[in-house]
Amino acid sequence: MDEIRTDEALMLAYRDGDGAAFDALYGRWRGRLYRYLAHQAPERADELFQDVWLKVIGARAGYEVTARFSTWLFRIAHNRLMDHFRSRRRTPVDPWDDAEEDPAAQLPAPERDTPPALLERREAARRILDCLAALPPPQREAFLMAEEGGMGLEDIARAAGVGRETAKSRLRYALARLRRCLGGLEYGSP
Amino acid sequence: MEERDPLLSEAYRQADHPEPPAGLDQAIRDAARSAVAPVRRKGHGWLAWAAPLSGTAVLVLALALLLRIQDEAPETLREAQPSSPPALPGAQPQTAVPVPATRPPEEGAMPVPQRSPAAHLPSPPVAVVPPPAPPRTEDAVEASTPQAAPTAPAMGQPGAEVSSTVPPAPAVRAHPSAILAAPPGEAVERNGAGPGVAERGAAAGLAKARSQPSSEGPEHWVETIRRLLREGRLDEAGRALAILRQRYPDHPLPDDLRHLERPAAGN
Asked: What ipTM was estimated for this complex?
């Protein structure tokens, strides 16, 4: 029965005390959310993953269907990631502070992560992951939201707290960089 | 613009992605379950107390309101109460059945003491047994008719015509055993006494009278005396003999009982 219920219906059921609804919801989104976090903060993925779900659990009482559940979930994850990055002062220049422009698109990737080196050292499946890791964080997040969350531009913009055009620009740059990173290769084959 | 690149998406899906550890999955699921469970217990606890608290509050308010009304306007409560309590099922209304005092005194010359309506009803089986003699049957028939309701004249009331037609025996006779169970003076007194003495003697020998045959002719008295003698109850046998002699002075005493009569004859 849980297979035919939407994510929003399951969350509402959990809000009303149905613990099994949470199990179904968690089964749907555990892998996607973990990958979203692990590709952005691999060293703290477990901690962030648990924090996000605990926030979902804690926010159940006030949950209302105002957007897709995936948008709500990734919005929580995005905020947790921002807190994590700010607490670590990861970068002297905040790459997330790109309201309209996308300077990350012009940032060169690290030398060791250039696509030719990666393509030579690693198998094809790892290549795209390395290319993804080489992306500027906002572009990587936009790509992960699209791939893992199945979200469109509107949802990506809402989850990331940016305008639709910003989300569109990030995603466009992300795809372009990945293609360029994988250059000349046929995707999916080594 | 394209939001997806199918080839990139396929390459991404084929990559080896990390998965959350099983221990982490279990910890999160446990947290989710435990977060729901306390809410249920809390709700049930409140519901469990809600009904008793509500009931108690209603009772207290009702009692307080009643006391306040009683203090401020007691006449209101009195008016609200019925003039007489509702009749219980089977209860005898005290004024519903006319008592003898309300009846016209056309039958009895003497005023008859008031008796409860139950006195006119067929008497229950008690020690007072109906007399076996034919005159007793007439009395019973008369007693069952409304015209013969006052039985007091038949019990020795002076001036009653019925008293001249009945034998000198009391209108209400008790079983010999019942009479013997009473004190000797009372037993003798019963012969000419009023109904109160007879009823008291009958009540005293109620248990025995119910187990004895209803016949009380002289032969029955003789048998009773013999039985008392066999049981060694000599005093009671003597009293029974005295009653037999008083009631049936012409009845020949059997030989086996004549030895009881000798001392009395000597006195």
From this structure: 0.80
